[in-house]
Amino acid sequence: MSATTITSNRPRDVQVTEIGKNTIILRSRTWERLKFEVEYSRQRGTTANSYLIQADKKALIDPPGESFTEIYLQQLAQHLDFTTLDYIVLGHVNPNRRATLEVLLAQAPQVTLICSRPTANTLKTAFPNWESRIQAVRFNDTLDLGQGHELSFITVPTPRWPDGLCTYDPATKILYTDKFFGAHICEDTLFDEDWKALDAERRYYFDCLHAPQAKQVEVALDKLTALGAKFYAPAHGPIVRYSLSRFTFDYRQWSQEQKSQELSVALLYASAYGNTAILANGIAQGLIENGVNVESINCELADPAEITRIVEACDGFIIGSPTLGGHAPTQIQTALGIVLSTAAKTKLAGVFGSYGWSGEAVDVIESKLKDANYRLGFETIRVRFSPTPEILQQCQQAGAAFAQTLKKTKKLRTPRQAVTEAKIDRTEQAVGRIIGSLCVVTTRDGENHKGILTSWVSQATFNPPGIMIAIAQEQNADLMRHPGDKFVLNILKEGRNIRRYFSRHSALGDNPFANLSTRTALNGSLILNEALAYLECTVQNQIECGDRLLIYAVVDKGEVLENDGVTAIEHRKSGSYF
Ligand SMILES: Cc1cc2nc3c(=O)[nH]c(=O)nc-3n(C[C@H](O)[C@H](O)[C@H](O)COP(=O)(O)O)c2cc1C
């Protein structure tokens, strides 16, 4: 059966099948999008795979999260007497999984939990009364279940799953890969016989989950491929049987591709409860989709030497932090200290974080970076507790904007445009080299406010102070072409992506001001509070020329809103378009 057979109205269920000697899979399936995180956005459903090995001893691998607790335990009870279960092996742990574990442990009080040391620490803190039932394992430790099932454990820490643990069973040659080699797709087919049809899902899953940690993925691959497995049994999607070597090769290739991107961003974050980490993933996605390599650094794990090395090598850096007890966690404070003392001031910066009520961490990081004269590549993202799907989209857009700014900066510093532009008319190229300040002109028509993005503005006179704007008729020019018409010229600040609200392609509809902080100028038009400066102007003359109107206006009043920023400017390659 192929991917096309998916029907989204099928109810959740648990598919149970034998996949090897003494071994069954329990696939908790949903045919709909499980969560709002980016990795589920292809909406092909997913499966949460759990495995049960019943030899002389019995081990259950990776029970699913709480969305499936009830149906999963009902199915499991058909195949296992809970009081005979010896071990539960955990590839990683999160609050979701803990919910199922709590129910299981209550019904199987004899069970020992097998996990990596970081998982053990997390569980011991969350459930102190489980302490005696938790057994932390190290790389290459083994656990003998009898009948040849001598499980060996492979620790695979990554920034996103510092506690990652894979398990290999030599009796079946199945490697339980947890977050590696998965795909978010739900089908009846258990194995990957139609693996070519899985390519897009696999790649998307890799891009979302592993591309920002390509370096650690390569280290993990070295450990995993040494085992000579015949099957990969991942946490999500089909079991890998027919495309094992191809898929392994793909992981190597995709990791290499990621690392060899020309531009690279260090994404430094910490996240005690996962919210800041979700934002980090959204931003990473925006960067990756725009061809920029992301080096994720989970500051709770990374040592200062590693942070220094990555920060020195990157083209830009982004710092994410929760606020805990009125501060950023110590590890973030350390990382910020390293950044401030190491990163060249030309590097583009960004700040984000989740908070509960006061959110000091993000404010402090932002102001320290600004004080040190770093330029911000997107407007700082502050989110109360968990992000909404809209905020995640904003994070992706912020990552994309950051990538675009990096690319532009890189091009400006690299004098090799002649070849790529050879086909563009030379005059247009030359005209395109004229640059202007990015501005939003705001006008008022009764109760309606309009905003026009333009960079065709220049000072025209000293006395009186006057400006000239070139504007097309269709850009609401009627509101600012007659002598005496009033408008405000908002001069935008570099690093703040205000322009997106006013671009012709904006998805924000007719009211670009809805999401912006504004106030009303004396002349009735709107001042954007996040502009660098604004000018209140009165039109004096206009000339119709070519496809534009040239408007001369006198400046009645003006103010700089932020002293420490620089003007956003528009660099173009050609004078034939914006
Ligand atoms: C122990 C503790 C202390 C906290 N202190 C603050 C605080 O001082 N100010 C604040 O705005 N939020 C505070 N919060 C709320 C967290 O910032 C919020 O839960 C945030 O989503 C955590 O982000 P994370 O999931 O990335 O760790 C606190 C939360 C906890 C659990």
Description:
The chain is α/β, with parallel strands linked by helices. It folds into 3 domains: about 260 residues, Ribonuclease Z/Hydroxyacylglutathione hydrolase-like (Metallo-beta-lactamase, Chain A); about 150 residues, Rossmann fold (3-Layer(aba) Sandwich), CATH 3.40.50.360; about 140 residues, Roll (Pnp Oxidase, Chain A), CATH 2.30.110.10. Helices cover about 25% and strands about 30% of the residues. The strands form 6 sheets. Strands 1-2-3-4-5-6-7 form a 7-stranded mixed sheet, covered by helices on one side. Strands 21-20-24-27-28-23-22 form a 7-stranded antiparallel sheet, with no helix packed on it. Helix 5 packs antiparallel against helix 6. The longest helix has 25 residues. It is elongated, with a radius of gyration of 28 Å. The N terminus is likely disordered. Bound molecules: flavin mononucleotide. The site of flavin mononucleotide (FMN) has 18 residues, from helix 7 and strand 16.
